[in-house]
Amino acid sequence: MLKIAAVLMLMLAGGAQAATEKAIVAGGCFWCVEFDYEPVPGVKGVVSGYTGGSSQNPTYDNHDGHYEAVEITFDNARISYAEVIAKFLRSVDVTDAGGQFCDRGPAYRTAIFPTDAAQTAAAKAAIADGEAVLGRKIVTPVVAASTFWIAEDYHQDYYKGSKIILTRAGPKKQSSAYEFYRKSCGRDAQVKAVWGAEAFSH
Fold this sequence. Notes:
The structure is a single chain. The chain is of the alpha+beta class. Helices cover 36% and strands 21% of the residues. The protein has helices spanning 2-18, 30-37, 81-89, 117-134, 174-185, 187-195; strands at residues 20-27, 43-51, 67-75, 99-100, 103-104, 110-112, 149-150, 164-167, 170-173. Strand 4 and strand 5 form a beta hairpin. It is globular and about 45 Å long. The N and C termini lie far apart (47 Å).
């Protein structure tokens, strides 16, 4: 009886593990994408990092060629990859190929990095659906996934930080500084302008 119970526990553990999937996306400032996704039901974790470039061991000060990106770990029994990508597209300005909001340049472009054929098909379908909703072209590319390099510790969960940061508006707690930065960049206002009622927010 104990052996049967042990086998059932292993089977259940294996099933839970099989339900865990990862999505890699770039949506401008990685702090903001972390903030958007961590509260989403079914999302188990979000990590900021760099991907898409050829240099090894990129850092914040030297990530030439890489995108600022996040790796989203989620339970695909609760939220599908297609749903993750649909939300992602509706959380960024998919009409801007030069960066996102006040963050300009190649590192801040949007992109989706599928890890297999199924994710590639789902990403392309989500883009086609988004284009039908918007009635215009989405410039966010689908790029085959490459190494995802985890960013420095101080970038992880930046929006929750309690350190005092010097901002243009004076010293602020890190979480308040993040809110000030996001609002000053006009991120949410621009996403709403692009997507209207379809905009993703939490």
